[in-house]
Amino acid sequence: MQLYQLVEESEFVCTLVDSIIKLEVYSKFVQDISDYIEGCNFLPKLNNEISTERNSTYKQRFASLQNLVLIMFEQDTILIPKETAWFGYYPDGAFHPVLAPQQTKLYIEDWIGLRTLDEAGKVKFISVSGDHLGISSNDMKTYIVPYLEDQKSTVSRPKIEESLFHVWISSIRSSLLKMVGLNQDLKFLN
C-alpha cells in the first residue's frame, strides 16, 4: 500500500468521526466532561485523561520521541478548535477561550509526556495554510522531510508494517460502530 493511500484512508476516518461528532455537538454527551470520560471508548484512555487509569507506558513512549512535529491547518474544518492539532483546547465546560497547549491540564500535569518533550525542545508547533491534511508539497518539504532525512539511531527499531495501520483503522471503525449503536459488519466501511 502506498503512503497516499494510507493518508486517504486516514482522511476518510477523520471525516467520518467529524460528521458523527457534529451530529451530537450540542448534546449533553459532547458538552459534559464526565459523560465524555465515561462514554468515549478510546480517546480519554489515549490522552490519559482518566486520573485513576493513567498509563505510564503511554507517557513513557510518547516522551521518548526524538521529535514531535504538530501541524495546525489555519483553515481546518475537521478539528474544532483547530488548536487541538497542537493539543490546545477549551477550558472544561466552556467554548472559549481556546487554551494554548501549555495552559491545558494535559500539558501542565504532563499526562502523556507532552510537557516533557516540549521542555526538552523536541516539539515543533507548525502552522500552515489550508484545510485538514491539506498540506502543500512545499510545506511538507519544509516542515516534515527534514525530520525524515538522515535520521541515525543507535536503537534498532522494528519496521512499521501496513498491518498495524489496518489494525488501528479497524479499532477506530469498531469504536465508531459501537458509538452509533451498530454491531454488524458494514460493507461500505471496509
Question: Can you describe this structure in just a few lines?
Answer:
The chain is mainly alpha-helical and 190 residues long. The protein is built from 10 helices and 2 strands; from the N terminus they run H-H-H-H-H-E-H-H-E-H-H-H. It has a single domain, classed as Rossmann fold.
Question: What do these coordinates show?
Answer:
- It is a single chain.
- The chain is mainly α.
- The protein has one domain (1-148): Rossmann fold.
- It has 10 helices and 2 strands; from the N terminus they run αααααβααβααα.
- The chain has helices spanning 3-23, 28-31, 33-39, 43-46, 56-63, 105-108, 114-119, 137-143, 145-148, 162-179, and strands at residues 68-73, 123-128.
- The protein has a two-stranded parallel sheet with strand order 1-2.
- Helix 1 runs parallel beside helix 10 (162-179).
- The longest helix has 21 residues, at 3-23.
- The protein is globular, with a radius of gyration of 18 Å.
- GO terms for molecular function: thiolester hydrolase activity.
- It holds the Pfam family Palm_thioest.
- It comes from Arachis hypogaea.
- InterPro entries: AB_hydrolase_fold (IPR029058).
- This is Palmitoyl-protein thioesterase.
Itemize the secondary structure elements and their pairings.
Blueprint: H1 3-23, H2 28-31, H3 33-39, H4 43-46, H5 56-63, E1 68-73, H6 105-108, H7 114-119, E2 123-128, H8 137-143, H9 145-148, H10 162-179
Parallel strand pairs: 1-2
Helix pairs in contact: 1-10
